[in-house]
């Protein structure tokens, strides 16, 4: 693709959508989501992020309208009010906010940063990441890491697992009780550690793959020797539920793993479903003695943590403002440099032709020495450099001021094929609305630009 393109995004997240709507917008895995996006007309790059709290997709296309069309059917079964579309700049800023934990249900939680990194690598593995998304997501990850090392945004309850335990503690005594965690993945492990920290007497870990559950149980016992932890197969979950007063479920199963039959034990049970899609059949809420909560029910618990972290969040917002402007400046400079590169390439071709002609004529008048040839070439280089110095400065200033018409004109003058016959139709509709939609990324690696010109650009 000759131009840099623009990013278009769409999301269904916990702030507007229910757990079921997020599940509806999600696919089986990030790779398949990215591959599907790449197969759509006009899409050159693609990225997807799917967690229990959000399903998001991003594409890079030549024009914003093309990106919108590519994402039209992202969540066909979700209410319009729960689907959020973002243009280029909105997408850049949102990715930074996600990485920093500002968009999480538990403000500042750490888990999202690791999820973003894994999704980034998954997208890269199927060819979804090019120069535009590489810059965007890498910057978001950098912001997320800065937020956690330079502020207190992640102090207190830092995961859905710890928030779930706080919710359980608001309803029943957790310390000294038996608790069950269904699922031995990342979320289940976080919940298990939070229950151990809350002082449960016995912890059961159920999982379809028993060795995984054994690993989690062993890790918990090692860190909390006074606690008894053991693994149980998922097939024996009914017996485990009967022994537990607190149950946290967080598997990746596409089907329910807990039904009313599992919970019909006659005992009091606080059950928290952290899975997406749901692990627990909603009919369980009708079982006597069972108090059922899902992710949507954690809002009240996380509000306390959110209040304590608001001061840190303000600092992170300022950090994002600074990093956002740096990213936009970098994008602008790359596009200006491509225009400058084209200008120097065109000038270099003319200069070399005229130098060759002049040297041939001088040779005809008497053989030139190598030193004389170098003098002629140096004179030509100096003339080109001085003549293009002012236009180079103007193009850089045009990029800073979002004057893409000036840059496009320069590209068209020095490359008549630039942008095609209808390039003018892709011009941005207003200042700072997305990035320029028909300007190349950066100085190409194979550009025929003299070394002294490249070095001078780098020094500017």
From TrEMBL:
Membrane-spanning residues: none
UniProt keyword list: NADP, Oxidoreductase, Porphyrin biosynthesis
Annotated active site: 52
Example GO biological process: protoporphyrinogen IX biosynthetic process from glutamate
Residues of the Quinate/shikimate 5-dehydrogenase/glutamyl-tRNA reductase domain: 167-301
Domain Glutamyl-tRNA reductase N-terminal: 10-151
Free-text note regarding domains: Possesses an unusual extended V-shaped dimeric structure with each monomer consisting of three distinct domains arranged along a curved 'spinal' alpha-helix. The N-terminal catalytic domain specifically recognizes the glutamate moiety of the substrate. The second domain is the NADPH-binding domain, and the third C-terminal domain is responsible for dimerization.
Name of this chain's protein: Glutamyl-tRNA reductase
Organism listed in the record: Halogeometricum limi
Gene name for this UniProt entry: hemA
């Amino acid at each position: 693709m000759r131009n840099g393109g623009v990013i278009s995004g769409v999301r269904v997240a916990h702030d507007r959508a229910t757990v079921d709507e997020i599940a509806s917008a999600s696919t089986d895995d990030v790779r398949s989501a990215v591959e599907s996006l790449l197969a759509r007309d006009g899409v050159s790059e693609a990225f997807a992020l799917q967690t229990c709290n959000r399903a998001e997709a991003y594409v890079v296309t030549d024009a914003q309208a093309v990106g919108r069309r590519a994402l039209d059917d992202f969540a066909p079964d979700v209410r319009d009010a729960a689907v959020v579309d973002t243009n280029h700049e909105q997408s850049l800023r949102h990715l930074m906010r996600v990485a920093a934990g500002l968009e999480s249900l538990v403000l500042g939680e750490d888990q999202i940063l690791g999820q973003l990194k894994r999704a980034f690598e998954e997208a890269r593995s199927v060819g979804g990441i090019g120069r535009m998304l590489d810059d965007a997501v890498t910057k978001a990850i950098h912001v997320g890491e800065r937020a956690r090392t330079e502020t207190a945004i992640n102090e207190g309850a830092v995961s859905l697992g710890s928030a779930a335990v706080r919710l359980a503690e608001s309803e029943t005594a957790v310390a000294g009780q038996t608790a069950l965690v269904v699922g031995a993945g990342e979320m289940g492990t976080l919940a298990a550690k939070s229950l151990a920290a809350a002082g449960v007497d016995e912890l059961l870990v159920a999982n379809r793959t028993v060795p995984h559950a054994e690993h989690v149980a062993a890790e918990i016992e090692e860190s909390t020797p006074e606690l008894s932890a053991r693994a149980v197969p998922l097939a024996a979950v009914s017996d485990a539920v009967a022994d537990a007063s607190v149950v946290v479920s967080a598997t990746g199963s596409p089907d329910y793993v807990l039904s009313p039959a599992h919970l019909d034990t006659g005992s009091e049970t606080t059950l928290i479903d952290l899975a997406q899609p749901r692990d627990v059949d909603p009919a369980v809420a009708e079982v006597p003695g069972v108090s059922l909560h899902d992710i949507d029910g954690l809002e009240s618990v996380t509000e306390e943590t959110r209040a304590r972290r608001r001061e840190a969040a303000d600092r992170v917002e300022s950090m994002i403002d600074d990093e956002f402007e740096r990213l936009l400046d970098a994008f602008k400079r790359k596009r200006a440099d491509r225009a400058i590169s084209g200008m120097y390439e065109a000038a270099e071709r003319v200069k070399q032709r005229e130098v060759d002609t002049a040297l041939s004529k001088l040779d005809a008048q008497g053989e030139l020495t190598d030193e004389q040839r170098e003098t002629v070439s140096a004179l030509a280089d100096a003339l080109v450099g001085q003549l293009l110095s002012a236009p180079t400065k103007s193009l850089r200033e045009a990029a800073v001021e979002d004057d893409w018409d000036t840059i496009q004109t320069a590209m068209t003058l020095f490359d008549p094929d630039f942008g095609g016959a209808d390039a003018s139709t892709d011009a941005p509709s207003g200042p700072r609305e997305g990035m320029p939609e028909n300007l190349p990324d950066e100085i190409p690696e194979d550009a025929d630009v003299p070394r002294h010109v490249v070095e001078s650009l780098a020094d500017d």
